[in-house]
Every structure is written in C-alpha cells, then in structure tokens.
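Before relying on records like the one below, remember that each one covers exactly one chain. Contacts with other chains, cofactors or solvent are not represented anywhere in the record.
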Amino acid sequence: VRPENREKLTSFIREGRLEIGPWYVLADEFLASPESLIRNLLNGMKDCSRFGGRLQTAYTPDTFGHISQLPLLASEFGLSGIVFQRGVGDEGERLRGEFLWNSTDGKAQVFTVHLLGTYSAVTAVGYEDWEYRGGYDEERAYAHMKAVLYGARPGEVDFIPSWLGETFERLPGGITAYATGSELILPNGSDHLFAQENIDEVIHQMNRRFPEVEFTHSTIEQFVSRARDHAGELQEHTGEFRGSRYQHLLSGVLSARMYLKQRNHRCESRLEQITEPLASAAWLQGSTYPSRLLTYGWRTLLKNHAHDSICGCSIDEVHRAMMCRYDSVSQVSDFIEQDAWGHLAGEPGTAYLHVFNPLAHEVTRWVEAKLELPPGSAQQIQITDASGSPLEQMIQAETEYVPGSSQTRQERITLGFEAVLAPLGITSFSVTRNSGSGDGLKQSPLGFENDEISCSWNESGEVTLTHKKTGKSTPLRLRFEVSSDAGDEYDYSPVPGEAPLVVQRTVAAPEITADTALKSSLRLSYEISLGRRLNGKRNARIGSAVIPIQLELTVYRSSPALHLQVHADNRAEDHRLRLVCSTGCRSEWVRCGGHFDVVKRPVTPPKGEGWYQKPQGTSHTRSFVLAEEQDAGCAVIHSGLSEYEALVGRDGAGEVALTLLRAVGWLSRDDLHSRPEGAGPALPAADGQCLGKHTFDLAVYPFSGPWWDSEVMSLARQCGMPAAVYASDSRCETAGSLISTDRTLVLSCLKRAEAEDSVIMRVWNPAPEQRKTEIRTAAPPSEIREVRFDETPVAAIASNGCSIPVHFSPGEVKTLAVRFGRTGE
C-alpha cells in the first residue's frame, strides 16, 4: 500500500526497533497440517531475511491451544524460545511462568514462557479502555500495574479496566507469584491498537512508584534472553496444551464453518501429496521445477491459515475471500500437475491411464478415471495391467453432446478398477478395445465382505461390522445427533434443559446401490425434524425444518475399512450436527492423529475446578480417533473433520462423536453458558449457519495388534483423496517408484530443496518404538545429508547403492536432502 516506506521499515527492522516474524502468518496450529506449519516458517523467514532480521522466538500469543510438537518446530528452525498464552490447564501451577518444553520424541527442548494473565497485560495502561479514551491517569496506571504484578484485591478491581479485573483476579499474587526468576514480561499492546505514545513517561512514573521493580522498555527477544539467563529451577513438560484454567480456550473454533476446514484439508493434502511430488518427479526427468508457482500456491494457502481465518471466527467477508484463495490454490495445483504429467506421460489422450501413488509403500486401492470416447465405446474398452492381463472393472457411461456442438455426440465414461500401485511413483495401465462386453465383472458379487471385514444391517438401518481376523462383531450404532447451539463462532453453547435429538432409524428401507466383484454400496436415508432456529431469547427453538441425510456405506474388495460418505442438506440454524459411531472397545483413553504425533487423551475430560472456562468434552482430531482393547482396536477415520468427542455407549463400549456441522450466526456473544465473557466483537455472521448441501468422507477400520503396525496411517492419508489419474496416448517411460519405505513410516514431504538441486524427503516414524530400516531410491544418490526443517545441514549420510540406512527413535521425524543425477545433466 505504501511502497515508499519500504526503506524506513527496513531500517527499523535492522536497527532492532521493529521485530518481525518468524511466522508468515500466526496460524492456528491444530487446523493447519504439520507440513503447512513448516512452510509457514520457511516463507516467514524468507520475508524476514529480505528485510534484514527476524524474531528468534516462536511468538504465538493468541492461538487457541498448542500442538505437542511446537518445540520440535521451534528447534528445527533455530528458534531459542516459545512465548504463548492459551491452553494451559492444572499443569500450569507446576510449570509456572517459565519452563522447558520437550518435543514428544525427546529430540528438542525449548525454553518457554507462559503469558499467564494475557498477552495484553499492560495494554493502554493508565487509560479507561484500549481506545485511549478519557485521558491518561497516573493513579489508574499504578492500580493497573499493581494488579498485574501482585494480583487484584477486591476493593481495587473497580478502579482498573473490567477486562483486566476479570483476567488478574484469577491469579492470586499476580504474575510475580509464578515467576521462576527475576525477569517479568509486561506486553503493552494488543489486537489492532496503535502504540501508546506516552510509554516513556509511564515507565519513569512506575519506576518511582515501585522501588522494588526496575521497568525497562524492551523487546520479546531481549526478555527471552534475560529470562533464560536469570531463571531458577525450571520444570519440564511434554505434550500439547488444550486446557482453559487461566484463559478461555475457544475450542468451538474446531468446528465453526466446517466447510473451511474441509476445503483446507483438500488443498493442503493435494499440495503435499500430489502436486509437489509430481513436480519433483518431472524435475528429476529434466523438467523445470515450478518454484514460483508453488511459492504462490503455498503463500495463498497460508494466508488462510491465520488463526481467526481458518478457525472460522471472523465476519462473512473474510471467509468468502478465503474460498476464493482456495480456488486459486486448486487452480495452481491443476496447472502444475498437468504440466508435470505432460512431461512424464505425454499429451492427454485415451490409450493409457497413469496412476500416481503418494504413499511411500505399495498399496492396493480403488481408482476411478473419466474418459470421453465415441458412442458405443463403453462396451468395448478393457483395462489391462503392464503384463497385458485384463483387470476387473466397473463402467458407467452417459451419452452427451461434445462441448460446443449440437451435432456430435460422445460417451462420458467412468472407469472404476482395483489397482496395485507402486510406492511413491506412477503405475500405468492400458485402455484396450475388444469386441465383447467391457464390464469386466466375471466374478460373483462382493456381498459386502472382503478378506478383512464383513458388513451386515437390518431394515431399520442398524449396521454391524465384523473383523474377520479377530472374529469380533461390533454393532456400530450409527446415529445422527442434533443439539441446539446458542453459541458463536468461538464456542458451542447448549440450551439449558434441552436434550439432544438423536436419529438412528432410517425413513426408508436400506437400498443397495452397487454389489459387484469390486465394491458393494448401501444407502441409508434419514430425516431430522427440528425447529428452524432459536428464538430471540435463545432458550427454545421456533419454526420447523427437516434436514435430509443420506449415508452411503461402501465395502471395497481391496480395503480393510468400511467407507462412509454422508450427504446432508442443512435447512436449519443454530444447531450442532454430529455422527456417532461405536468403536466396540472399552477403554478410558483414545488416540488421535495429530501433528507428527499420535496424541493420547482421556475419554473423560478434567473436572476443571476453578478454571476460567469449564473444560469442553470436544477436542481436536487431525485424521482419526481410535480406541483399543487388549490386542485389538477400531479407528474412526475422516477427511477434514477436526472436532470429536469421546463418549461411552450404553453397552460400555467407547463411541466417537464427530462434528459434521456447527451452525451459528454470530462472531461472538457474551451470553453463553459455556464461556464467561465475549471473545470478540458482537457481529452477525449469517454464513456461519452453513445452510445448504454438504458432503463428509469417513471410514471405520477395525484392526488387531498395535495401532502402529496397522493400516490406520495409510488409510488416513487416503480418506477423501481420490487417486491421481492421468490419461494419455503415450507410455510413461518413467513409471515405477521414486522412493519406498517401510509401510509403518509416513512420508510427509517430497519436494525440491529451497536453495539447491536436492530432493527434500521428510519421513516420520509414528510408532512408540525404534525403527531401524532403509529408504530405497530408484537411482543411487550422489549425496545425502540429514537437514533440519529449515534445510540447514546437520550430518552427512552414506548410502549403499539405492539403499539409505535410517534409524528412527520413537516418534522421530527425519528430513533428508538427497541429490540425484537429473536427466539431461
């Protein structure tokens, strides 16, 4: 907006008068993928370097809780400290104001500062409010500062701003009571505020009024350095922060505007799993790596990760702009992928189908491809593998006019088949013509069972899933639960005295929609009748509405999970819609997919005695929730649904309630039963009601043995992500694997390095045990180095031809920079 000020800004940064970064945006940690958080810091630090300096601390003041691996992120980018506010529970009384935070793999330990009161502790000190109205008053400033330092006494609360009293009356003894050393931090700013112009005068006055304290005008960086040097004995912590003892957590942001979370999951998963790896494969074959386009795509996506954006807690205009950004990201991915496919497999055509597998191990999965062919082709085409053997297939065809013509007709054909896909690479199939039937279904119907599972149901829609290996049959007790939501975009708030509406019986007989040798599908139809919205007092529903829901259950011959797809048409306001599923496992704990971590959480939340906000039963899930009992378990897997609650069913078995929608119409309100005060401006947000049609992808996966030896991680990465398919008239001469790993490892990233001609591979061992294994490459590397997340070299690694030996500690993430000879070099 003001490019003429660039030099002035740069000089301030270089002189240390202004600290920037290290983030590109202050992202919500839970709702962005771990790889997205890495790209956030990579891009933020690039910008910082262009301006001549960056904050060396992971400053994350206002995000709504913190992931367990924030210390790992900070350490891998060379950050010397973490400063944060929200998410601490009862452990805060032990940890106090400063502590050491360990990564879950024990690889990193970072000095951490908890802003116990607020990240705005002395904002507008001496004024009536944050707008600097009413004129400065030294006595008011003294009372304000005294409350922060030593606690707010009953008779003194009236003289300080209300927001401050509500904050610091919860801290008997103030922040000094929690200090481990001689240094304290008093932030003098907050959201959207100008600097306080008389701060030098305030510091002079407070040094006179508090002779036992030395006040200085400092920076976060200087404070962290001094606090670390002067700290006393520090406690240690390992794990996430999702408590609300000292501040409200605002956990309802996990489900506000769920359409944003779903779209974000699709965009970032595509960039990570398809776009970048395909571009890397083409680059290794001599193509130009699309660095600028990928940077544009990532930065456009990252703008949506700002916490008040991806959390869905802003005005409608913000979130409409987000959807346009997601469109841009999808278009960039389209362009990059088509360009890469063209380099690898030639111009588009219909003779071959090429399928890309983003997983670094072999997988057998369902593939669908669309072709446009002359009329009658559906009865002649046949898919064959590399050996020329025909594959069983399903064909659907529609005859239509060629686009732009009312004279010529064509068949739009959807081919479905089961494919064995090579690890992280391309597998090619031929589209041949024959004179016989092209349906390829020469076996008897699958009958809703495969080698792993079987699925049965009754006329009321009650579904039972059987795991053949263990012989355990689990009534899933699938049901939809609707409860009124008198909350806002920040928090769910029930209507007192109102029981949730539970719909379990179908309104029509179950309908079999497919039963072939490759897949079987069943449709269950439901209707939820409820009041159209809450009344003006928000204590009862008025009007009437019906929410029609269809639940599609599919068993694939190649998949060990029961796949679910929910179609809902939301026609009501002010409610929360959840799908509940039994795991069949009796356990006091569940495990949830997280950020380079599988987080263990209790089924029963803490009591939260004396907490500022009562603990909520809901929490975060990145990709799955699983329960275990003895030597077996069951995982509920999802695509882009970020909120769950663990329940106990009437038979004592654990259940998972996944939030599908939370329909609310206010950015913030101050009359919630689940939160003691407002969390933002009281503005209407009509789009937050999420009216209209929605689709949700899930899977239920029973397994035996330890969860880390199961298929849960692989299935989680496939859920909701169709196979990447490209049709051409040319063979793909580079078909095969780029790399392959142990199937228990997770490949998080495959891209070109930021500053050199190496391939960056990031691999995670999710197991709570060591893994001594190898990474196999298609060609012998010429150089291998272990690097940090910021791609700073750590150590050289020797390879044995096409084998890279690797040793993972429990939960460890390794990043490798591998140099290959490129085609044409």
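Confidence is low (pLDDT under 50) at residues 437-442.
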